[in-house]
């Protein structure tokens, strides 16, 4: 981690001194994938995640002067990414979002009539998680993205999300609990040992 | 419980992570938009010339000029409707047409009337030379932009690809812009007496978006025009074109 941040610091130093295009490319290459992974759970759509990533990366790389070394570069760029995603979500047309949500709900409903096996089982969990994430408030999705998925420390995640540590912990707690409940309702009891699937419903007998 | 939820989320996230190819395309989009005053790496592609040795010495001067041109062509989000988008496009074109003309005239000093066209897209610049000297007609500047936005919402148009060409009229221009992306652009320009030009174009883009478009339009000098509108899935695309002579006649924007 230190080595990574030191390396970021070196790149930034070179960029500031010489405007180094290669160093900028290196920073972009290093963070594009990570930023994309952070924003996807917030926007829940591949094309939107690409657009938000593009906007966030350009905004960050053009605004390097705004970076102060009181936080790590990764914290700063992730904060830019989260803010860009939140702005994007505020602007996104409600009607379009509802249309997507309806479509995904149909897909999830269809799954109840298919037996989960192998890849289909993964796809089923995948869609169920997507659907459940859609139902969570974006602040809770942000907490999940930063801590549960990216594995960032809670304090750093709180700085990125722009909230108090206690607030982030509360969001995280609520998000995990609601997600578990929604997945259980969809027949995926993640609370059991391992991420196994346990379907229940009129066409199946319970465990 | 938390650990199981987190593991499931990590697996879910991994399944939605972009693959290597997807990431490269995304990085290209970012690099194209960024244009962060980076030194321009010019890759000269000479169609028919034996004068390559002088190009290297000349490249630095042209690069500096191109750099200035790149600043105006920065792909920033452009707010508002199509009318405003076209007005912004035309205004920026008018502002920087002279810089593009300078690129051509400086290159012409080196290659004389063998120079048919100069083009740039992204960080790549190309020259088109002909063995037989071209006519002395005044060159024209053409700016091409592909804009995109998601349908069903009110988001701004975003520039995903663009190219500038300065060319003498009535010659076929075949470009392979953007390096190894496989993108192909063909252009043919004919100047009319009415303050306009006939522009035929064929775009075959693979990156950052896969698009194919063929257009034949009469374009008023200096006025940006949407020559093609396409829709794929939930994404809408526009191809904007602006043309004007390198000097003399005022733009109509």
Structure description:
The complex is a heterodimer of chains A (207) and B (253). Chain A has helices at residues 2-18, 21-43, 46-62, 73-91, 94-111, 118-135, 138-149, 154-161, 165-185. By secondary structure, chain A is an all-alpha fold. Chain A has 2 domains: 2-91, Rna Polymerase Sigma Factor, Chain: A, CATH 1.10.1740.10; 94-185, Winged helix-like DNA-binding domain superfamily/Winged helix DNA-binding domain (Arc Repressor Mutant, subunit A, Orthogonal Bundle), CATH 1.10.10. Chain A is elongated. The relative contact order of chain A is 0.10. Residues 94-116 and 192-207 of chain A have low confidence and may be disordered. In chain B, the strands form 2 sheets. Chain B has a 6-stranded antiparallel β-sheet with strand order 2-1-4-3-10-9. Chain B has a 4-stranded antiparallel β-sheet with strand order 5-6-7-8, with no helix packed on it. Mean pLDDT of chain B is 76; it is low at 36-57 and 74-79. Classes of the chains: A mainly alpha (207), B alpha+beta (253).
